[in-house]
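So, can you check this one?
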Amino acid sequence: MKYWKLFLALLALALVLCACTPGGAQTSVPPPEEPSQGADPAITSWNDVDWDQHMKLDYAQMFTVDYAGNFKRVTIDQNVYLVVPEGADGLPFLDIPEEVTVLYQPLDNIYLQATAAMDCFRQLDAMDAVTMVGTQESGWYLPEVKEAMEQGRMIYAGKYSAPDYELIQSKGCDLALESTMIYHNPEVKEQLERLGIPVLVERSSYEGHPLGRMEWVKLYGALLNQEEAAEAYYTDQLEKLEPVLAQEGTGKTVAFFSVTSNGSVTVRKAGDYIAKAIDLAGGVYVPQGLSEEENALSTMNIQMETFYHEAIDADILIYNSTIEADLQTIEQLIAKSAPLADFKAVQEGNVWCTGKSMFQESQSVGRMILDIHHILTEEKKADGSLAYLYRLT
């Protein structure tokens, strides 16, 4: 046994001597690896990270963004995402909880199924980051998307319930941006994640305040490292709204609705963002106080008789044309349901219609409020000056 110990000692001494040059000078050794970009080398555990910087949010309640160096922690409805900056050699900590989704920047090869998110990329001049979509060209009303698909810069990769996994994977997709519809097909989300494609579920439609929806542009600014551009855009929109938000309400009533093929009426719930946008514009949304089903839908169907009772004296009618073909005349509206001829707004010619692009332009909320305000305050003079509404003739 003592010879074995002597051998180990001599071997250790030989290794030390080999590491030195004659005269005792130590040979050059590779420098230690630098810590990951933005990482604190003293931090080795997820629980030790000090997320000491936080994105300022005014209205949005459904997401947060926190910062530790160049790393970002995004939380959406209890789902946590770690955004790793480009150039980071590795993660700053190894014990990331299993439920945390890691997103590696740059995020420039995105499969976007959540159509409402596209407008945020558009406003940030970052549509090139979206290379695949879950809606065919015929389903888009944004001209920039149609042009990108015509030119092949953006391709259809299957709808949310049946994505083209092979295509998405072959394109090197670095993020699948889904709407909450994905929860109806959880196996799709699981399969994408098995293929190594992180999934982020967009929830801007769940924001209770209209301007909370608009503030989601800041989230995409964080994902794309365009926080300053997102903040500048958002601030500009708020400044345009300030004069309207500061004014007293007009007291005029506004109904926002559509007629279904079976003759019932689809209205927004009183807590919906469209109803709140009408209030912010200075109007009073009707109908109010209807019993509501306890679900996440922002709309409800009621019988024409009920709508007639609640909205016949409304000062303004706004018809939602995003589901069916656009209306152009009041006669076309009455053809959908004859009792509408009795409505005050119909008889006074104060019936308006939405354009189909309104709901794909998620950042339209501010301009929509301005449009409604013009209708409430300028009446006839509002014709031709609006972005998303037009008067039925």
